[in-house]
Specification:
A hairpin with a 4-residue loop joins strand 23 and strand 24. Among the domains are: 213 residues, P-loop containing nucleotide triphosphate hydrolases (Rossmann fold, 3-Layer(aba) Sandwich); 161 residues, Rossmann fold (3-Layer(aba) Sandwich); 83 residues, Arc Repressor Mutant, subunit A (Orthogonal Bundle). The chain is of the alpha/beta class. The chain has 27 helices and 26 strands. The radius of gyration is 27 Å and the shape is globular. The model has no long low-confidence stretch (mean pLDDT 88).
Length: 739
């Protein structure tokens, strides 16, 4: 017998189930469970495989509530990590609304949205808004937030795993804390297909003031990995990431009639592979496309539409098509080079057969010999159901500084209420009074170091409210909202002003008039750069030069590294898979000359060449871990015997190059590996390497210490680095105990 609450939920869901019936569908159990949980007032997280219907599970409960109890203004906020996702999500949500004639409006608001449309939205909000964390922060930076978000019922966090362990995730947490101040009954639902720590991730999404409901479903979805192997590893590269040596093998393995997404890890790599494929199949050029985030939005949208209709069969792409985009015609996925991360590979594989219980097929093309190990590790990791754990960052002060100034630009904030809301986030649950006081003093007075400069005195206290009263400071702050700190992007346009996309200024600055480069599938000739716009014209001249973009180096995850070490240990077994069999000559040579480490062993090798004394260490923990370890080891060696070192890293280990006859072996001791004063030694080693000074540039941008410039006169990366380095020196010298 149904309770009154269940009966009310059934009545509220009637329009939803009616639409499902018209499609010939039946709601899946996890969808029904999510809708009922929403209507019961709960928040939580949905984790089901890709292509199972997560979007409708996340939004239909809120839509049912809107239809049952209509209210004016914004009621459902849908946050997505990629602007390319917003178009697909908007179409999916709009479909039932239009087919059923519901009196609801759905729109998107991202970096691709025109300024005029954004202005209209602030005056007349749709009931459902799809946006990004950055756009939400900007909305909070304008007055009237209480009116704008006053009727907000729910927030959906799409692809939560993609945001969670980054500063964008922290920014999202803080925005949610502000929204919960305005709407105490606000519900939050996170959505993901690839999380290894579901309960913890759910708690971050809903905040510490709520108990999350976890919705999961045992929907079988098989992922088949097929390797494209070299004939022999003897002539196959030991390093590199392009993989073009095997482009003919890939062409032979694929069928132009089979809809295929070809994933690369960098935009430059995607450009070169597009060149290679169109060179190999010139007669199929109109059915092969290139898609990445630096190509103009209208062209990306046209490509996505053509994939759905079947006009385009192969798309060479990057993470711009990683997440959520529903390409049901896609039958196959290719991964060129290691995806470096189990969840990323699973996500990309899920772009094919994007339906419940579909079987994903992914072709894996290694770009160097040792990636054969990674392919084997991927297969075994996925077979065991392992996925990466994603945790929120702990107290990134720069993000909090930006958030407080954002609130002060808008309606302002009260100290006690805002501090309480901030401490309800997982990231800042342990923020101390002293830390918050330092931050408050910093944004109000510039702190100890910058108090003499008015531009750092951003907020003022008026009637117990902290506000930004200087319109110029507010304008400059809004231009810098966000936590993405890549190099400055410049617009590329034809001389007739038709937009092509964006490139980074460090590449553009090297161009001379007449130089030819390949971008967005076109041969372009540089004409001039004016007002931060790169003007080009089409040309028949040939060039293999492609732009380069920063931030393209992916590191292997800790989960993949665990499986990688196991693969090395099991490589001596009698029965091996195809990848390890292909790699056997290299592994056998390694075992004969040196050693193949077990999963619980650390391999260290030394040798002497004309360059000097080499020390090689193989933790297999990823390039970022190895960078820190390399500097730490160099610091501890130099403390015993001074020398100048060169440190190199990759995903498998690091090298320390020292002068000839440097006594590495003699300097190993219990003291060398001691955990005592480890934190102090790490700090000292990073300071000596100037790594912290280089990383401070991003922190300075997020915290508003440096201004990136106005749209028509952006600062170059070099200027930003100089500005942040000067501030870093000021803090180090005059306020060494700063946060």
């Amino acid at each position: 017998m149904k309770t009154s609450a269940q009966t009310a939920a059934s009545l509220s869901l009637a329009p939803i189930t009616d639409w499902f019936q018209r499609q010939g569908w039946r709601p899946l159990p996890f969808q029904q469970e999510t809708w009922e949980a929403f209507l019961a007032g709960h928040s939580g997280l949905i984790q089901v495989p890709t292509g199972s219907g997560k979007t409708y599970a996340a939004v239909m409960g809120a839509i049912a509530a809107m239809l049952h109890d209509p209210k004016p203004g914004l009621q459902l906020l849908y946050l997505t990590p990629l602007r390319s996702l917003s178009r697909d999500i908007e179409q999916s949500i709009r479909r039932p609304i239009e087919e059923m004639g519901w009196d609801l409006r759905v729109e998107s608001r991202t970096g691709d949205t025109s300024a005029s449309r954004k202005t209209r939205q602030l005056k007349n909000m749709p009931q459902i808004l799809i946006t990004t964390p950055e756009s939400l922060s900007l909305m909070l930076s304008y007055g009237g937030a209480a009116t704008l978000f006053g009727n907000l019922r729910a927030v959906v966090l799409d692809e939560w795993h993609e945001l969670l362990s980054s500063k964008r995730g922290t920014q999202t947490e803080l925005c949610l804390s502000a929204l919960r101040q305005l709407c105490p009954s606000l519900q939050t639902w996170a959505v993901s297909a690839t999380l290894g720590n579901v309960q913890e991730a759910a708690q971050v999404a809903v905040g510490l003031g709520a108990e999350p409901v976890i919705i999961q479903a045992n929907i079988p979805r098989q992922t088949i990995i097929r390797s494209i192997l070299p004939d022999s590893v003897d002539s196959f590269p030991w390093a590199g990431h392009l993989g073009l040596r095997m482009f003919q093998e890939l062409v032979d393995a694929l069928d132009i009639e089979t809809s295929t997404l070809i994933f690369t890890n960098t935009r430059a790599q995607a450009e070169k592979w597009y060149q290679a494929l169109t060179f190999a199949l010139p007669e199929e050029g109109d059915r092969i496309a290139l898609h990445h985030g630096s190509i103009d939005v209208q062209e990306r949208e046209a490509i996505e539409a053509a994939v759905k209709t079947g006009e385009i069969k192969w798309v060479v792409c990057t993470s711009s098509l990683d997440l959520g985009v529903d390409f049901q015609p896609v039958e196959r996925v290719v991964q060129i080079g290691s995806a470096k991360n189990l969840a990323r590979l699973l996500q990309r594989a899920g772009r094919s057969a994007h339906v419940p219980e579909g079987t994903s097929e992914i072709f894996f093309l290694p770009t160097n010999s040792l990636e054969l190990l990674e392919i084997s590790a991927f297969r075994n990791g996925l077979a065991q159901g392992d996925l990466e754990v994603r945790r929120s960052l702990q107290k990134p002060y720069d993000v909090l500084i930006q958030h407080l100034v954002t609130l002060a630009c808008g309606d302002g904030f009260k100290l006690d209420d805002t501090l309480h809301a901030i401490r309800q986030t997982v990231s800042y649950a342990h923020l101390t009074d002293a830390e918050f006081t330092w931050i408050l003093n910093f944004i109000e007075k510039g702190g100890k170091s910058l108090s003499a400069y008015p531009r750092y005195q951003k907020v003022v206290l008026e009637d117990r409210m902290y506000r930004v009263t200087d319109s110029q400071i507010a304008r400059m702050h809004r231009m810098g909202v966000g936590t993405i700190t890549s190099n400055q992007a410049l617009q590329i346009q034809y001389t007739n002003r038709r937009k092509i996309g964006t490139i980074e200024e460090n590449f553009a600055s090297k161009l001379q008039k007449g130089d030819v480069f390949f971008f967005a599938g076109r041969q372009l000739e540089f004409f001039q750069m004016k007002d931060m716009i790169v003007y080009v014209k089409g040309t028949t001249k040939k060039s293999t030069v492609t732009p380069t973009w920063g931030g393209g180096n992916l590191a292997i995850s800790d989960t993949l590294s665990t499986h990688l070490r196991r693969e090395i240990e099991h490589s001596q077994d009698e029965t091996l898979n195809l990848e390890l069999t292909c790699l056997k000559p290299i592994l056998s040579t390694q075992q004969r000359i040196s050693h193949l480490p077990a999963a619980n062993e650390l391999l260290i090798e030394t040798c002497k060449t004309r360059e000097g004394q080499h020390l090689y260490v193989y933790p297999f923990e990823g390039r970022f871990v190895h960078e820190g370890l390399g500097f730490l080891w160099g610091y501890r060696f130099a403390r015993q015997k001074q020398a100048t070192f060169t440190i190199s890293v990759n995903d498998y280990g690091f090298e320390i190059l020292a002068p000839k006859d440097y006594p590495f072996r003699e300097l190993f001791s219990e003291e060398f590996f001691s955990l005592e004063s480890l934190e102090a030694d790490i700090r000292a080693s990073l300071n000596l390497s100037e790594l912290t000074a280089r990383k401070f540039r991003g922190i300075a941008q997020i915290a508003g210490l440096v201004f990136k410039g106005y749209p028509s006169s952006k600062k170059t990366a070099g200027q930003l680095q100089v500005s942040s380095s000067l501030i870093y020196e000021v803090f180090s010298k005059y306020e060494p105990d700063n946060l």
